[in-house]
Amino acid sequence: MLYQILKFLMKITVSVFFRSISIRNKNLIPKEGPLMIVANHPSTFMDPIVIATMLDRKLYFLAKGALFKSKIAKWLLPKFNMIPVYRKQDDPSQMTKNEESFEKCYEYLEQGCAILIFPEGTSITERKLRPIKSGAARIVLGAEQKNNFELGIKVITIGLNYTNPHRFNKDLFINIDLPIDTKDFKQEYILDSFKGSKSLTETIRAKLEKLIIDIQDSNTDKLVANIELLYKYKLEAENGIKITDMEDSFNLTKNIVASVNHYVETDPARAKNMEFRISEFLNNLKTIDLKDEYLEEIKSTKSLTFNAIKSIIISIIGLPFYLFGLINNYLPFEIPGWIARKTSKTPEFIGAIGMVGGMFTFLIFYTIQILLVWKFTSSSLFTFLYALSLPITGLFAYWYYYTILKIKARWTMVNLFLTRSVLISNLIYEREQIIIELDKAKEDYLKFKAG
Length: 451
What we know:
Structural class: alpha/beta
Helix content: 55-70%
Largest sheet: 8 strands, mixed
Number of strands: 8
Strand content: 5-15%
Mean pLDDT: 90
Number of helices: 15
Shape: flat
């Protein structure tokens, strides 16, 4: 019961926290029968929450044993379907307890339940898959062996792709692959359990790599990110990809990564030159506090005039709604972020703490505010309208604030254009030359692929 209540609340929280959530191949997840779900792990406990709220069935979670140290944790965490798993780096003396945890997993799988595990064993926000552990393979194959390979356990791989898991109002693409049938590893496991587990683990790794943006080299990742910043919008326009087409955008980034890797391997001088030119260009923008997205706009006087007029209208009309939303939502919005920054030693926890903390702070503040309005007005209609306005004006206040920042940036850009036109013209020219070079690199890469 506690699990279901929390899942309902978190489902609402997740849908509000992310600007958009796109799920590919959700229909591939079996609705019944024993299931092991394995996923990458970029954002601590945000990852299991996202998967649990997406899934249409009850889920059990393998969590690090260090969380179960206190008596309260040992009592409470199992009520949220959490199963401890002990890692050597945390406490080698606790490793023997994994036998008990594995037996518990066997029981759940025999009952046709679904279990979630993150085989990387640690959570770091990087666009790469870290070395994965064999625990998932050992559990499913161990359970199958115990039951003469008659359970029919399926293994589902899930790739979690966040635009930024630590910030509110960003996007999430959940990528799901075809199930792995554990019966395919029966003979190998019976002959040699170590090799059988290793073979399944390798299959899981290969599938997860396809489901995420996997860039092992940090310098390559930086170059890809810069190319996305300058060039991806052009590729999206050429291919008719909208901002809501998360799967197509993901595939486009995959292609950018593949092309960059190609040049790093076959023409490192060209890759280095492009890396230098883009970095220099972006650094020059940074020195004058200007973003790349506004340079294209500044070339059009008509666009500048239209945006200037629109900015004034938005600023005036939206101000009272912004103030109302700000007053009613500021504290419940800011408190979780403040707590996350004060309590978290690693960035991977910030978004998760903020999201979960926000669920509680908004519930508490909204409840108190609504009760106070009811007490002082005694009007059901007014109280209902006030309650309805809270989330609506809160989201509007967030949008208005960042819109004003963009308006400010545009005016800064206009001022720079009028006072330092030579500098801006040089930046626009350099940007155009970089785009031309990227176009040429794309054409050469496509020719290489074609033949």
